[in-house]
Amino acid sequence: MDVDLQQIRNRIVAGLGDLEARQLAAVESVVRNMHRRIHFRPGSATDLVDSNFRDEMSLFLVVHHALHERALNKENFEYVFKQCLIASGDSAARLNPNQKQAKFDVEGAGQRWSLKTESGDSMSRNTVKVEKLTEALWIRSSPTAEDCAQNVLQKVAPRLHDYDRIIVLRAYRNRGLITYSLEEIPWNSLYTALMNYTQPEIFSKAVRGGKEAKSFGADYPKEGSQARLFRMLLDTSVEKVRIWYALEECLHHGYWTLPASTPTNVAELSTPEKAELPPQRDPQPEETCQEELPF
């Protein structure tokens, strides 16, 4: 980046004079946290995260956690992802200006991107959880397995044509560090499974303790296998389609690890290189998806 660093420093100093105490404290926090050490570990997929994308993501994660304790949410992630695409060379990358017309979140690098986030202490070692694959106002008027299958084919599968790729940013906290991982749910595999295996026979309501759940769920197998590719839940409580996609089938684009809380001074920063990785690819399959209940 060809910039005049002294000129930038002068502008920053000149702008501090009229700030109030709280504003100065916020600026000081951001500056101090710019010294955080952030450690990147590349993933197996290489077509998305180049050095520019990596560094831009690192910068925004540091700035975010200078002012926030919680992980990036979906809205924050959309903006950060767009900026990462711009840093990687697509100056025309943009947020979707009209999601009523098409459901992609960001357009750039010749692709339309659907972006999701996942965080929490109980993240699965086996699945990537998508809280909302799509809204589904029709769920409550689909009382039978036949209705569910028909609506998934007619109203869920066509929605996937609104975007080309699905990226999930997962955030995991452990021992004072937060690690973000970037996972991609392969569009073709998801769409093919919906088209090939959606039939009434796979939809049912879970029963626990003698009580039947209110929502229909379905297990979709991997192509040519009995192993589960993803679990779908038609959640009547929020009228959304939710999925749990096999983590081992996702494309992994990398990890970013940094201190999760603001240290009192730079010398107290933790060492991201020694951070425990997020839950990853346990060989044992999950038996159930607890989120199907309450009844």
How does the SSE layout of this entry go?
Layout: H1 5-16, H2 21-33, E1 39-42, H3 51-67, H4 74-87, E2 94-95, E3 106-108, E4 111-119, E5 127-135, H5 145-156, E6 165-174, E7 177-185, H6 187-197, E8 203-208, E9 211-221, E10 228-235, E11 240-246, E12 251-259
Parallel strand pairs: 4-6
Antiparallel strand pairs: 1-12, 2-3, 3-4, 5-11, 6-7, 7-12, 8-9, 9-10, 10-11
Helix pairs in contact: 2-3, 3-4
Determine the oligomeric state from the structure: single chain
Give the overall shape: elongated
> How are helices and strands ordered from N to C?
HHEHHEEEEHEEHEEEEE
Number of helices: 6
- How much of the sequence lies in strands comes to 25-35%
Low-confidence stretches: 264-270, 282-295
Q: Biggest β-sheet: count, sense, barrel?
A: 7 strands, mixed
- Number of DSSP E strands: 12
Gyration radius, in Å: 22 Å
Instruction: Enumerate the strands of the largest sheet in spatial order, edge to edge or round the barrel.
Output: 1-12-7-6-4-3-2
First-residue to last-residue Cα separation: 56 Å
Structural class: alpha+beta
Helicity range: 25-40%
Mean of residue pLDDT values: 88
